[in-house]
Fold these 3 entries.
Entry 1:
Amino acid sequence: MADNKFSELHRAVYYEGDKSGRVTVAMLINMIILVSTDQSDSLGITEKDLTNLGFGWVITQYLIDISRIPHIDENLTLTTEAVSYNRFFCYRDFWVHDEAGNECAHIHAVFVLMDHKTRKMTRVLPEVIEPFGAEYTRRIERLEKPVGIMKEDTIAAKKSYDVRFFDIDPNQHVNNSKYFDWLLDSLSEDFLMSHDLKHMNIKYEKEIHYGHKIDSLVVIDNLTTHHQIKIGDDVYCEADCEWTKR
Amino acid sequence: MADNKFSELHRAVYYEGDKSGRVTVAMLINMIILVSTDQSDSLGITEKDLTNLGFGWVITQYLIDISRIPHIDENLTLTTEAVSYNRFFCYRDFWVHDEAGNECAHIHAVFVLMDHKTRKMTRVLPEVIEPFGAEYTRRIERLEKPVGIMKEDTIAAKKSYDVRFFDIDPNQHVNNSKYFDWLLDSLSEDFLMSHDLKHMNIKYEKEIHYGHKIDSLVVIDNLTTHHQIKIGDDVYCEADCEWTKR
């Protein structure tokens, strides 16, 4: 199989870090979307071209594995590869390596193509995915869904957030990474300063827009946390996280 | 007078832009603090060294002039110079230039040295500022204070924000740039999409901490907006903005 990986260097700067000097998960996600946008640009299939065709990529799920969260001021290598696609889904992998070549994070992502007019998922157009070297497959991956929150009475915390003007990015969506701030801010400072995120399964269910008021809910089960983003009774996003003691 | 300017290149990436694809003021401020931190590192007077001495730099005021706000994917040159200092204040200038060498923004900033133990302003130590080539002067700049909000009944909007875990940066403060998101998010999407910020005078009065709930208030007077960040009746930050129609 051909190697269709695309890589670039990225210096993690101080405003990509949290209080502990570690890169935030939100910024880690921003970085990997950056390398995939740069790959698109290098292949001449820009976000703008896609918009002009009436389409846009939407991420529906991330499976995030973190071996070691990088610190600010590290020089990282961001790598991506569009691995395969079927009628409706594209599967893309991302890797973040440190200067010594050690893997810091691996992220598996599921993308769908959205029709801007109907705002619904549409069939993947081979011409927008084949230049990446992705292989067509009839197989649909059966990825585990996050457990989310099963019983309301187990909720440890619930915080509300208004979606801000600056949460909307140049792609006209709530920036993907904002969800991570909402999800993880529901945990206490004590928890966030004493734990490292090792694994996260996050699934986006519905689009969130400017002006929405969302609730971020969390259930804490020892070293596992379960999360939901809701508006009223509707679930917009679910996630499970696995942590280790720092 | 010796040229003590320090410059570096910076690519504005998509997550540094707003819905319109323009770099946010928050990110512009992040970028200039980055270049000044890098200058400190290059001179061997790191933030960490200062912390070990029991001190930290705190910004008390910015005067921001924007000729043209850069777009994402522009390659910018960030420049800084510590110009002068007196017993209590350091004055630093910043410039952001585009690839053609045109000035996009000029920012004049006032810094003070804070004693971490007392959390009060302390006398500037010559040894932490002289390596930058800043000149000692007895003159204290009389910078205009923002007008802020004079009459409560003129307030056009008031929005509340909880300070989040991820608002605190590796320097253990609410990241400077967060204030800009709070201040400007009080304006409507219509206003923000149809106006360009030309000038901003912002003054930080008191430290904001994790867990605080702040109010962002705005008065709109045609192409001038006046802002305050308050907790209860106490003013934590004031700003005036001048805008042009886009």
Entry 2:
Amino acid sequence: MMKTGLQRVARLVHNNALPRNLQILPGLQQASACGSSTDSLVARFCPKKSDLKDYALPNATWCPDMLSLYQEFLEKSKSGSWIKLPSFKSNREHIQGLKLPSGLVAASDKQDWRIFTRCIQLEGQGFEYVIFFHPFEKKSVCLFQPGPYLEGPPGFAHGGSLVAMMDETFSKTAYLAGEGLFTLSLNIRFKNLIPVGSLAVLDIQVEKIEDQKLYMSCIAQSRDKQTVYAKSSGVFLQLQLEEESSQEQ
Amino acid sequence: MMKTGLQRVARLVHNNALPRNLQILPGLQQASACGSSTDSLVARFCPKKSDLKDYALPNATWCPDMLSLYQEFLEKSKSGSWIKLPSFKSNREHIQGLKLPSGLVAASDKQDWRIFTRCIQLEGQGFEYVIFFHPFEKKSVCLFQPGPYLEGPPGFAHGGSLVAMMDETFSKTAYLAGEGLFTLSLNIRFKNLIPVGSLAVLDIQVEKIEDQKLYMSCIAQSRDKQTVYAKSSGVFLQLQLEEESSQEQ
């Protein structure tokens, strides 16, 4: 169990009074925004070769809007501006070789762990999504198609499923843009319901990085931008993941 | 698809300028807090007999904390102060015989629809939870045990899963306390991570009902209240569900 609260960690970061073994990033300078830090994070996050299944690939259940927008971003990614993020079954696979900050002890690997947004493996029934990340502009786009297992009001996606998708996209963006690791807060204003089976496009932007915190915004809307589904903001705490080998020395 | 945004509906309610066929509650008076309205809603929501499976019942995966607190609340429910809410596979089953307000057309019943928080049917792997509601004090308690399919950071529940659980408990409480139907906004501050497989107790309170909106708060913490996981607030819009038969006349 985590003994130290996230807010307390944030205060400790601010006061330069960190608990033993807790690695905290130095204040992130503007200059490092597009530097090696993000590059190396992206390189680690997007392995050229992997035996792990990538769930962020088209399948027969994707609606035509989702499929064609995916192809558009894939085309853009050839120029290197956008990067398609792989999506594995568990965050454990995303951070292989790294360990959580001291005080956070992960339970054993014995169970069938799944990242929440990949909890349903039946194609089209749960979260269908793919995230594209733009390292230089520190922004992301998530193409999200909620399935019938994410229902709230009959025929529409549960508000909680949209928030989960926002939190997950915030989280991956925060990590790659500046090692943002933990959600400190989320504010969401809902505008319209998302019909199950249709596409919602989430545009995420890092607004600023200050005092070891990343401030981010999100707008979720239809592809033609005529219907806004929700707007949100999120604050993430920066914490460096340690190399496992360096701990064992 | 919903043509009218939730915020616009809220403004229309406020201005008494409602679209055709949209049934809106009259301003809820203090006096109606414990009156027939909540009573009849609860009676409809908690049928004495039902063939539907209730997922809010103990199973072998519940941790001892969850099981014993469930028994405590079940004991209290005998005096009538607390009511254990059943939890069916889909919201369609919760609102049988009722229809959504005009403009919200639910898709067909042909698919395997599931309410998001019951999306995983494998015991212990997803959302294990039960909600108790206190009609007179307009509050709820949700006992929530996240399974390994709700993972975020390795070994801990995804922030989005906790928000989904909060939204769902807010939602049921808002409906029973004053026909709150749609989430307008959510604000969440995360304090500590919830270890997968352990109990989080969500205490939900209706703070006020004003201008057809319900204002609610939630604190999620460990059973001994020594660890706060998150605090949140939510605003819900009141909208009356129509009887299907009255529409068909």
Entry 3:
Amino acid sequence: MEAQKKPFRRILLTGAAGGLGKQLRERIGAWADVVRLSDRANLGEARAGEEVVHCDLADRDGMLALLEGVDAVLHFGGISVEDRWDPILQANIIGLKNLYEAAHKAGVKRIVFASSNHAIGFHPTTVHLDADSPTRPDGYYGLSKVFGEQMSRYYWDRFGIETVCIRIGSVMEVPKTHRILRTYMHPDDLVELLRCSLVTPRVGHTIVYGMSDNDANWWDNSKAGHLGFRPKHSSREHEHLFPFAGYPADDDEPSKYQGGPFVIQGPMYE
Amino acid sequence: MEAQKKPFRRILLTGAAGGLGKQLRERIGAWADVVRLSDRANLGEARAGEEVVHCDLADRDGMLALLEGVDAVLHFGGISVEDRWDPILQANIIGLKNLYEAAHKAGVKRIVFASSNHAIGFHPTTVHLDADSPTRPDGYYGLSKVFGEQMSRYYWDRFGIETVCIRIGSVMEVPKTHRILRTYMHPDDLVELLRCSLVTPRVGHTIVYGMSDNDANWWDNSKAGHLGFRPKHSSREHEHLFPFAGYPADDDEPSKYQGGPFVIQGPMYE
Amino acid sequence: MEAQKKPFRRILLTGAAGGLGKQLRERIGAWADVVRLSDRANLGEARAGEEVVHCDLADRDGMLALLEGVDAVLHFGGISVEDRWDPILQANIIGLKNLYEAAHKAGVKRIVFASSNHAIGFHPTTVHLDADSPTRPDGYYGLSKVFGEQMSRYYWDRFGIETVCIRIGSVMEVPKTHRILRTYMHPDDLVELLRCSLVTPRVGHTIVYGMSDNDANWWDNSKAGHLGFRPKHSSREHEHLFPFAGYPADDDEPSKYQGGPFVIQGPMYE
Amino acid sequence: MEAQKKPFRRILLTGAAGGLGKQLRERIGAWADVVRLSDRANLGEARAGEEVVHCDLADRDGMLALLEGVDAVLHFGGISVEDRWDPILQANIIGLKNLYEAAHKAGVKRIVFASSNHAIGFHPTTVHLDADSPTRPDGYYGLSKVFGEQMSRYYWDRFGIETVCIRIGSVMEVPKTHRILRTYMHPDDLVELLRCSLVTPRVGHTIVYGMSDNDANWWDNSKAGHLGFRPKHSSREHEHLFPFAGYPADDDEPSKYQGGPFVIQGPMYE
Amino acid sequence: MEAQKKPFRRILLTGAAGGLGKQLRERIGAWADVVRLSDRANLGEARAGEEVVHCDLADRDGMLALLEGVDAVLHFGGISVEDRWDPILQANIIGLKNLYEAAHKAGVKRIVFASSNHAIGFHPTTVHLDADSPTRPDGYYGLSKVFGEQMSRYYWDRFGIETVCIRIGSVMEVPKTHRILRTYMHPDDLVELLRCSLVTPRVGHTIVYGMSDNDANWWDNSKAGHLGFRPKHSSREHEHLFPFAGYPADDDEPSKYQGGPFVIQGPMYE
Amino acid sequence: MEAQKKPFRRILLTGAAGGLGKQLRERIGAWADVVRLSDRANLGEARAGEEVVHCDLADRDGMLALLEGVDAVLHFGGISVEDRWDPILQANIIGLKNLYEAAHKAGVKRIVFASSNHAIGFHPTTVHLDADSPTRPDGYYGLSKVFGEQMSRYYWDRFGIETVCIRIGSVMEVPKTHRILRTYMHPDDLVELLRCSLVTPRVGHTIVYGMSDNDANWWDNSKAGHLGFRPKHSSREHEHLFPFAGYPADDDEPSKYQGGPFVIQGPMYE
């Protein structure tokens, strides 16, 4: 009996040495004959079905080479926390420009972009958002994610390169804070959302919030219904960890906004 | 012990010899003392609790007679696929006018109208719709369904005849194509939605999408919450049938629009 | 010195023997080298720059011939008041189908369609509408206008034939009733709106209300801002004609709805 | 082993001798070291962990004393049905003013206000509402609830006192009428919603509908997603009690509006 | 030659001794054969075409008598500034209840209610509102105006008594502060809006902002288009009076909110 | 007689050597005791009331010095057309970051940011936008303007620095193309909008389209009503320059989108 054909010949996972990248590396092998992994950090040896490429997002020529022969991209590379301007500029702004230029030149037609809830982090915790709500970044990091969403919007309007922008909440097995009860995304749910983002026949330019089926939530994903994403996990099973952590709230800024602690970390001027 | 009273004395099912009509004939007997069945095709013998009437929708006098003594109508008659203008004109336009005229004259107060997703079929597959989204018919057939929805709107505004317009997706046990994962409606769910449409005390002029609880979906039924319809089935149990049928999509028109293949079938000029 | 080039070679005015048609015939000569006029009624002799074609909208072959060689259409033909079903069916439903089929076959790329406020006539007089408000036809006539708007929507989505649907209010020099203070459109403003509808480079499928700059009004045209239509007239100069005609309103249906007397004229069953 | 710390030192339950008040008294002991109970009716003896205060809402000085030392309030006091003007004025209008004045002076920072579906009872049964839909009170009682919602809005804007306004449907174990299938709230779900309203870190001024997970429903709670309320019960298990109670509806006012029988009870002029 | 018939037999102006009342008394004589004037303050002698009635709004029996024989009401009575609770309760809450009860019993079918911008005064000065924006009262006074708007909503839904609620800005000849450039309403424009509110055939329950055609503005009146109100004046001719009164704003509350100084005046607890 | 006090002590105009900058330099002297002018190009001699500073936006230290002692900024510096990535990165991305960092450190509280219609240039010419419509940049340039709008949003949310983002259309005396009839902004109207943006007491984070009162238009400024901007000019007086330039449109991309020729200029990869 023949092995079943995989949906892609080659997909690229950037940021494969990062926190999420490492987890994803273990779980996406079934989606492509070859998974190309890239990072500027050490990725170790390529395993069966893998290609390993050392590349910095800010390296334009390197990026042009990296995208060659790729069918689809899972872009998890770049800075993933609030930081000083320069690293964010290099990886998340110049890097995004390099990614889309290279994708265009290499003929890549779909990208899944790891955006972040910090693109909307300055919305208060008492409002409900959907994909069309105005962005309100909560720092240089969030600002760079809005930039990436708009870069991808442009490449869709201009060249028909499709992108799913996932505004990822907090990916972990067990929520670490009371706030994360709302932003929680179980790793399985992230993998499922990536799968949906890759195999849905048409996605155009879709914005979706990356979260599990949490009881308490700030975000409405109905406009991404075409992706068919149904999370299987929920933070409700972990609510007992923060029994009275709620009211009365500390009178500090982080507890007022969806972005939580990020809203006071920036801007890091030096 | 007494038999329980049925909710209606007589309901009419048009199109009873059609694909859906035949299935419904088997399942709606409990709703009325008498189920009147009509079609222009052969309906066979009337069984217990049935009346069989041979009638063409375009036959005005026949329709006047058909509606006499009826409490409520399930209108499944007419052309149900893209077709040339003339048959659609006769059955779905003139027929609709005849139906509402006859219902008015006979004092019928509620109609459940089998509309179609083809009333909105030219919306792209990446947008989410609800009952108030603008219609975008994908052919003469879809256009005739918009006409029917508006005819029923008029009879509600003018005479208080209530209609539930069901924009039916794809009714079948097992989805036949990848697109149908989104439009899928299990026959049980259709029967349940018809029941809800008949027994809800007031429906005014309600538009509802006829679909099961599919993970991937384009339509939001919250504005029809008063109907109390909760589908029990989902296409998710059939997703394995189309494992990699999605991306990369063929670059053809049908895969771009919710109406699928219908969008290129018409207009059939002759 | 050379005569200035006219914007079109040949435009077609249907319904040229009708009330509005006659007025327009006098005023549109500057827009095309040839104005083709059609009606099923007598149009008299063709004048300089005119072609006269006798044609019934329900005559499919006649319509195919009529549209040959035409650059753009002003469609004012058909029934323009509430009427029995059959004449509306022939002229406004079958006629519309014939018009778009013929336009498609002849390569016509733009149509200005005389729709009507009766497409939304069952909205109460206390609500404000725009181009996306749900239609609520107030009779067979209004229903046929919704049908025409949807037919044109389909030809735009399917073949890129552009249409401006003008929901005309009440075109006259002096308002005849209190209601018309709200629906009033001075003939000059109609001519200007037709001009805008013809010369705007792209119109896609645009819906616009045909009214002057009346103080009292029910309709918002901002979504048609690309047309650049600014009415020069207003019913305010005629308000003195109906000094106390307002409150207390008669407790009849016509005064409750935007469609006025139309809302009780139909349906004319025979 | 130490007993776990309770989230509040002292909470106040007003209306503790009323129908809902009695049920709540049995179930909220775990939320505070001390539950202060008040009513103008007899509350019996204080039990362990309780304080009993006899107080009329219209008694301003009494209210000032009642709120002293309170961390949070569950306000279930006042008239809870349609009634004559004077009792509603005293308890629900003057009483509300007294409550918020006293809360302000005592430094109370959160109130859960038992509002009612009768604040929106004059909406037809065929429309779907959310927290921002315009209010349409169905009597003096509903009007007093809108007043309370606005009083609490003011204290949030002016002094940052948070309120969750719960537009309670029909709290009971088993629905008593067909209408209640839509408004049903199981007592457990009410307790859970109160808990969510108390322990969510920030609520600002939140409006939420108090209902179980009923299949048939008129209300959308997505804008209160930050509360994390997920009902566990549903009226669907009781639908068999009203098998054909629906169509055809009696042609009376109560069956046309969400407020049901309340819409014809008022105004009680004497 | 006969004198022209006036539109009303008898209209009632409450609050006729107040600031606006006195101005209106001079200007509304042409609208009715008899203008009944009421106030609890001295109104002086009745002139030709006038009736003078001394009446306190809180006096229920007096109000019942006052409304007898009245065709329409201009309700300008009650407290018109922020004040202590008791006077507002008596005049603006109990008084409103008395007014509508009396109107109902006397068969009055239309009321023009002087509401206030203070019903929405806690909206920031950087947002734009229309008739459906949520109310945010800025004190007891604003709260009483919301109450009146909702009382009138109820009488429209319950008995079909029509009301136009005018959220009056600042009526004066010359703006006194920089804020009033936005809220300015010339007295002529108020008179014109009252006229429109009285003579429009149907108004249902209409909310309209009372302002002139000011360049700087916070409010959108398009939903009241059926009234036909077009202001003739504008604060722009007075802008030179406050040349640099704007930026930098004082960092105080009144300059942040549309309600201006009212937002810090209340609540007046004693 | 004393000279009247000017509203600001010192305002900064960046880009003062550019096309618009030169015009503005001539016209803003009345707004401040000192107008500081900056550019990386030659600005000539400082005149009375001027300070001239040579500064590149990408020079962080230079920017810190430039903002010292400034009350408000008119930011017209940077690249103002589609260009290669690097100059846009330096001036419009890094430059914007430097501007806001410097403004923050210098205590500047208000900035007027010259954004551009190219932030929304990929919207079709048949849609109408307002300040909350999603952005759709039409190139690197438009993308940098979205970045600037979001940077300013962040500094408002984080530090309360106010910004008015003006999405400028086409500033010139006489429209040069048919498209510019829609985007036209007379220089006087730009100056007036800048004045409004500076002197309005509170602006928070306001987005406004910079256009004259053109008959044909794509943009709705009602959400910026608090600015009090009323343009005095209109492209209508120039429409005769492009008599038949409209229909039939060339079938090219630039005529399909609001951004016009920009939509095909980028991305300039080298």
